[in-house]
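S.,

Sequence below, as promised.
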Amino acid sequence: MRSFFSFDNLAIVVATCCAVAMLYVVPKNFDFLNPITQALGDFDMTDMVFTQFRDESKVTVDTNIVIVNIGDRGRGEIAEMLGRINQAEPAVVGIDAFFRAPKEEDPASDSALSAAMQATPNLVLVSKVAFKEEAEEGVVEQWVTSAVEADRVFDTLETSHPMFTAHAPTGYANLIIDQEAAFMTVREVSFEEECAGKKEHSFPIRIAQAVARNGRQRPWLDMRRMRL
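The prediction came back faster than expected:
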């Protein structure tokens, strides 16, 4: 009769125990290997409301808002586009693009774009609130507010060149988030930030303010953080 306590059986038992131990230890120490836990940890009931329970056929679409894709068009072409847009007398025109420096090889396009912006009565340009040392490293799309100091205020405002911003207010479009939410779904947005001793409003708030000043609409704006 073959003995039950053979080397093969012992090896199988040891291997099984090691596999169970690995399944317990690895997810505990390597969160990136446990997407289910991360997904459930970032779950909010509002996610179900907006993704599963909302009837898209009953959602009202505001046809007054028109998004124009400028793509990789040059400044002269953008100036022509602004001219055509102005003919429709829009309540506000917001440009989410930077024109950081004059183009020495094409000053005529710079002049045309500057003139077109000056001729746009309700123009809003984009900006970015930043920290000086981080802004010098390059353009970024988001800032983690607690990465340097929790209570530190932004000291640098990135904008387009003054030849373009002279006749238009700016609003920041970069996403302001907390460190602990850096890898989670962002459900809170900031409407204004302290930057270089002044208050800088967010890009959509600047656009809403321009619409209100134009008399088309009187929205109530709460400048505190809004939860989505």
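Residues 139-148, 218-228 have pLDDT under 50 and may be disordered.

Coffee later?
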